[in-house]
Predict the structure.
Amino acid sequence: MTLAAQAADIYAPVATGLAATEVELGQLMCDVSGVVNDLFQTVNKFGGKRLRPALVHLFGGLVGRPTHEHASLGAIVEALHLSSLLHDDVLDGADTRRRLPTLNALHGNEIPILLGDLLYARAFTLSLSLSTPDASRELAEASVAICRGEIEQSFLRFRPDLDDAAYFSVIGDKTAALYGASCSLGAIYAGADPRTVEIVRGFGVSLGMAFQIIDDCLDVVGDERLVGKSLGTDLETGKMTLPTLRLSRRLTGDDKRRFLELLQQPVEGSRREAMRAAFDFDPIVAECQVEANGHVEACLAALEGFADGPERQSLSRLCGFVLSREY
């Protein structure tokens, strides 16, 4: 089953809400400048799975009754996600995303940075039109976390001596925070009480952690034709991910020296391919998948207190999709 077919199947209970979000997102990414409009059309193709808007709608239906504002909330979290992708591609020097050239590959670094900022500003403006300030607060707090995580990660480049706690702290900020905000916003605007909101947020954070761990595994061993974006960028830029940290700890003697040489010294060709040729990543990736599975189990445990129904079933299936994805 294709990615689009899997997503449509899982998102079926909230298909109407997601369609409304697409309309809102289209309006948010519309500008008086023809040039900006063209750029927005390209960027909108980078979003892909629409996981974060789906979480907004699924939790809105799970904990209460979704309102017309959930369409706007979905557009807000997706716009923030797209904004972060534009900045990520610049930071990583990525050439492709969703099998398309990145904006930095097409136009240099200035355009995607400015367009990402513009998209963020549009998302924040939309949040101010809602009935409560919760969306603005969540958007601001998630943005703080994303920026903090990226800054921390930049200062930890080429550091194979890091412990897992440092890695988990980084991905908790740069990835999981927005997942948590997407879930909590869906619940808040459906009338959930504070305790329920925190349970829902915990689901999102755990799902985001699992997603990033699998993403980091794909960066090392994934097939670029399936994944549809530049792979090996973490290794090229010295970002320490769970697979490389776990591998580093297992190596000794000449193997460890070879690993450090490939990580920290200039390499002819692809650093990723040189690493894969020198070391067997399969047992490391299997170990990381176990770690990701632990986070998914926390997600499933969080769902146990909610009544069974289409939204809960879709959320359970979404957990399985995150674990098994190859793209």
In short: The longest helix spans residues 194-221. Residues 58 and 220 are 32 Å apart (CA to CA).
